[in-house]
Amino acid sequence: MNTIKIGTRNSPLALWQAHEVAAKLQHVGFDTEIVPIVSSGDKNLHQPLYALGITGIFTRDLDLALLNSQIDIAVHSLKDVPTELPHNIQISAVLERDFSEDVLVRNKDAEPLDLEVLKIATSSLRRRAFWLKEFPETEFADIRGNVQTRLKKLDDGIADATIFSLAGIKRMNLDVLYEPIPFLLQAPSQGVVAIASLSSNIDLNQVLKSISHKETEICTTIEREFLRTLEGGCTAPIGAKAEMLDGQVRFLGALCSLNGKDFIETDEIFDWNETENFGERLAKKILNNGGRELMDEIKKSL
Ligand SMILES: NCc1[nH]cc(CCC(=O)O)c1CC(=O)O
């Protein structure tokens, strides 16, 4: 096989992730070349993502580059990858999950305010809804851009605090103070780097399989199946976390109304070899438990 061309968005986080994948491939004997591609998700920063009304805004340009053979693989944050993939594109490997949770980062010049009075800069439906569930009076500001841009906007004073994926902070080695947010369930597949490739590229896919982290694969498959079954192509405040402990998997999943008032969750432990269709089964349980009405309400108001 010739040099493996690695497509990536050109944000610092995306490039870090692409280099991580390059190192893994080099370790099993392949040459690599990193090909940065500007994505439309990075070009349109004036509107929050859910307002753009299309899924896959971060992945579409890399999908196109894969399909026209400009690149051999595309590296993504798995949480940004839609659950329905284009024809002939598949997730062929995931790297071991490092950190999965969201954390609170405060404006460093702000008073040490109590959580319930903080103005929070986040455009994520999930983060807003789960925060409102705890603190219904909270005010929010919209914020977009990569981690570094968002930190700068925070320091410029658009809000008292913002919420980040801890994985992003750690990967960028950012020197910021952060606090855990125990009531905020992570996005499905948060903290996981994924490699997409053409399904027809059999030889390459075998190589990719050999560098894939099996436990992370099992956990993210459940989380993404849960998401796909619940959302049915629409975005909604959905959290999911599958974790392996001694051959068992613990799964936490939740659906929340936009205003945080309605909340349906599931918390289950099962043997890892019984995980077939588990994400789907648990999502259906939530749908039959008031989730269907909640999803209809969310779709109407977006
Ligand atoms: N939504 C953007 C995004 N996509 C992936 C990460 C970080 C890495 C990850 O969580 O997988 C981030 C930043 C954030 O949510 O703070």
Automatic annotation (TrEMBL):
Self-association state and partner proteins as the record states: Monomer.
A GO CC term attached to the entry: cytoplasm
Keyword Transferase set for record: yes
Upper lineage: Bacteria, Pseudomonadati, Bacteroidota, Flavobacteriia, Flavobacteriales
SUPFAM superfamilies xref list: Periplasmic binding protein-like II, Porphobilinogen deaminase (hydroxymethylbilane synthase), C-terminal domain
Pfam families: Porphobil_deam, Porphobil_deamC
Name the record gives this protein: Hydroxymethylbilane synthase
Molecular-function GO term, any one: hydroxymethylbilane synthase activity
Catalysed conversion reaction: 4 porphobilinogen + H2O = hydroxymethylbilane + 4 NH4(+)
Keyword match Metal-binding: no
Names of required cofactors: dipyrromethane
Domain Porphobilinogen deaminase C-terminal: 218-288
Physiological role: Tetrapolymerization of the monopyrrole PBG into the hydroxymethylbilane pre-uroporphyrinogen in several discrete steps.
Family of the protein in this entry: Belongs to the HMBS family.
An example Gene Ontology biological process: heme biosynthetic process
Domain of life where this protein originates: Bacteria
